[in-house]
Amino acid sequence: MTELTFMKNIGKELERKLKIIGIHSAEELKSVGSKEAFFQLKMRFPEVCLVHLYTLEGAITDTDFNKLSEETKKELKGFSDEWK
């Protein structure tokens, strides 16, 4: 199993939060997907924001979160807005 912090965009604090919600490896994050992981994080940590969703998507796609396509950002923002 690959450590979460070996993925792009994932630091120690986000790794800690992911482990609290039951995601312990890169493979588990990829299996769950960015939206479901974000949803679970949002339920446990209400301060989680859109940037966290971008970060998760970037980690899964091996992309710096600030280099996601505008189309991807728009889709993710729409998803995030549902949970405000």
Question: What's the quick description here?
Answer:
With 84 residues, the chain is mostly helical.
Q: Please, could you describe this protein's structure?
A:
By secondary structure, this protein is mainly alpha-helical. It has a single domain (4-81), classed as Orthogonal Bundle (DNA polymerase, domain 1). The chain has helices spanning 12-20, 26-32, 34-44, 50-61, 70-81. The longest helix has 12 residues, at 50-61.
Biggest pleated-sheet summary: none
Number of strands: 0
What structural class results from the helix and strand content? Answer: mainly alpha
Mean pLDDT, all residues: 96
Write down the CATH class: Mainly Alpha
**SSE string, helix = H, strand = E?**
HHHHH
Helix content bin: 55-70%
Helical element count?
A: 5
Strand content: under 5%
**Any guess at the CATH architecture?**
Orthogonal Bundle
